[in-house]
Each structure stands twice: as structure tokens, then as C-alpha cells.
Amino acid sequence: MNLDAYRAAAESFTAELSLEYYRHYAGLQQELGIEPVYDRHAALFERATVETLREAAAHAPAGDERRALCALLDFAVDGYLGRATKRLDAELARRETELALEVDGERLGFRESPVVQANEPDPDRRARIEAARLEMTARELNPLRREVLELQHALARDLGWRSYRAMSEDLKGFDLDALAAQTAAFAAATDATYVDAVDPALRATVGTGLDGVRRSDLPRFFRFAAADSAFPAERLVPAFEETLTGLGIDPGANGRIVVDVETRPGKSPRAFCAPVRVPWEVYLVVPPMGGRDDFAALLHEGGHAQHFAGVDPALPFEFRHLGDNSITEGYAFLFDHLVEDPEWLERRLGVREPQELIAHARAQRLMMLRRYGAKLAYELALHGGGAALHELPERYAAGLTEAVRVQWPPELHLVDVDPGFYTAAYLRAWAFESQLRAVLRERFGAAWFESPEAGALLRDLWAQGQRCDAGELVSALGGAGLDFAALAA
Ligand SMILES: [Zn+2]
Question: Measured in angstroms, how far is the CA atom of residue 307 from the centroid of ligand 1?
Fold first, then answer.
């Protein structure tokens, strides 16, 4: 097998696929034409290719050669599974777009329903919207999701791994047991303070504490409409650009980032980043709205865009585009967490009394981290063969209920699953980000986002792409590896 030819073809595939996503979700074209892209590049994902790469990776000397082969193998297996499930995936996407709920005699699009729910002040109507969505999820989506899952599990075993879990762990290089132990310790360490942190914030936004709140109230809690006035639409793009110029960084990365702020029908209501050709062609799509969520989304996606546009162009394809996604997510979190930083809120948005914003953000973050820890424990059982299929709904609901302390619906046990243990990448990214932020604050002060030296440090990190994993980057910054304790603190 000619590795250079494989890299070049993989890079073309990635660029074509990413461009399809960009054009569809930016509202530039109606269809999402990813099937023809897979068909044009079918040779990348043959079983024989997977086996050759796996063999080569197993025998490569430790260091960059092995890292490169592992990243390419991960890419090939992902495409091999993706080709097998793409018909089901497309059908799931079609149903999600076309299904409509019937609530109080009104029709609500399935995908739009969580947004309507988050904006609904009446708790009983929120509960009716959620009940209708859960019923439809169980009836229309879960049977297909189960088929996808069984196919993925069977293919992983057929490729010679013990389980989908073992395969993911091998391909990503994550130690999932160690991560699960850290997140369990985090949950134990925050048990005593959880109610005190979450209860007042819940009461302030939805009028009920943990004793009476329903899961259907949580989208409203996360939406935090009362904060909108602090995040006006006309400050969205300027606040983002001023943050980057404060760091001595060009928001457009010398033309490598195309910022799309136009309004057009069919454009995604959420900001997103499409890294088409890293680092030369990266799209950052921004919805021209306001509110705290939009600020967080733009900063998050802007963090991804800056990372990708800042990668050293001399690196091979796999270190520019592939590797440990905990890294790019960590840079994205570094920026989106600025919406809960009192220093940033005052300097960029003129917020003088940020206490309520901070208290809400803390409660939300705590809830999110505990939820993801419980999700990881569940996904380990799901993908590791440790639980029978009929036990899964109850197992999922019990784990999530215990972590969040809100009665959790079992109907979500197949849709609330991130492919390829992306849940672990998010958890690792949260740890990486908190350690990176601690370094920035220690070296450059609480207003590190106004320091060109901090920007230089970030640019050095971005240039490395995802060649090393997040733990190695933390060690290079002087830490002792990824550590969840920093988050609990
Ligand atoms: Zn992200």
C-alpha cells in the first residue's frame, strides 16, 4: 500500500465531505450530498485497507510513525463503519427532518421542538412537548438506532476486536477505565455541593428546585433567557473579534478563515465550523442573532476555526486533520467559557454585576460534567458487552437520574449516545481546557485574553495540530497529565 497516495486521497475525501456539510448547513444548497462523496472514494474504506493499516500500525516503532498510522487507521475504520450504516443514518436524518409532533392541537417539527420547549414559559406545556418527542423517539427512531448499534458492534467484532469499546479504545488511544474512575471521583467530590450550586440557579430560571424540577424544564434552564440583555446581537461579532485582536491574533487568519455572517433561508440557526482544507480553507458560519447561547456558540466554533487555521501547513494530513479531538474541543471550550468569565464579561460586554451569570454558568457546568460522567459509564456498558440489550433503557435512566438528580427518561438510551466515544473526547477536553486556562491565568493574569503573549502561546499550540494527545500537551505545559481534580476545584 502506498501511504502517500492514501493520505492524498483521504485529504480529498475529507475536503469534499466537509464542503458538503458547509454548503448544506450554510443554506447554500438544499441536499446533503455525502453519499456520492463516499462512492467516489470507496477505495479508502475497503476492509483490506483497514487490515493493512492495522498491521502496519501494530509493527511501527513508537513515535510519529505509529501515531500517523493509528490516526489513519482510525480514519479508515470510521469510514468502513460509516459506509455500512450510511443508509440507516440517512433514513434517521430524513425522519428527524420530516417528523412532526402534535401538541395541544398544533404541529411542531421534531427538530425544532427542543427550541420551542426552551422558549416556552409554561412548565406543563414544556412537559407535553417533551412527552410527545419521547414517544416519537421510541417509536420512530429507536428501532433504527438499535440497528445501527448492532451493525457497529458486529463489524467491530468481525474486524477482530473483542467489542466496539475495545476497538474505540485501541483506535483513539484513550484509557476509558482511567477516565471513568476520574469522572466517578469527580461526581463523588461534588455530591455534597451539587444541591447548593444547582438549586438556586434552577429556582431563579424555572421557579423550581431539584425536588420538583422535571427533565422537560432543563432546556429552559440552559436557555437562560433572562441573560439575553447582557448579550446583545450587535456585540456578537465585535466581541469575538476584539477578543482575538486582544490576543494579537487576526480573526480572519490572513484570509484562511471565511466568516459567513449573511442571513439566508435554510442556514443553520447555530454557529459551526467546517475545516475543509486545514489550514488553508476553514469556514466559520455565524447566525446573526444574539443571546448567551449564540455568543457561546460563536466563541466555541471560532476556537475550532482558529485552531485549524493555525496548524503548521508542513505537517502531514493526519496531524492536520485527524488525531485526538479532545484537543480541538479543548481550544473551543477555552473560548466559549469566556461567557462565564467575570473579567471578560466586564471588558467585552460591560457587565458590572456578573454574579447571577456566573452562578448560573457554574450550575449548568456542574450538571453537564456529571451528566457526561454518567453517560460515559453507560456507554462503557453499552459498547463493552457488559449489559444485555433489554437492560439498557433502565440502566441509562438510573445512571443519569443519580448523577443529575432529575428523573431521566429511558427513551433516550439510544439517541443520547455519541459515536466513537466522543463523550470521552468532551470529558478529556473539559479537563484539558481547565488546565490550559489555569496556565494562561497564572502566566498572563485574569485578563489573559488581552495579552499578545498568551496569544503567542496559543498559536504555538495550534501549530502542532493534533499530533500529540491532550495528556501530552498538558505535560508539555508543565502539568502531570490530564487531571479532573482541576475541574472540581
Ligand atoms: Zn466543538
Answer: 11
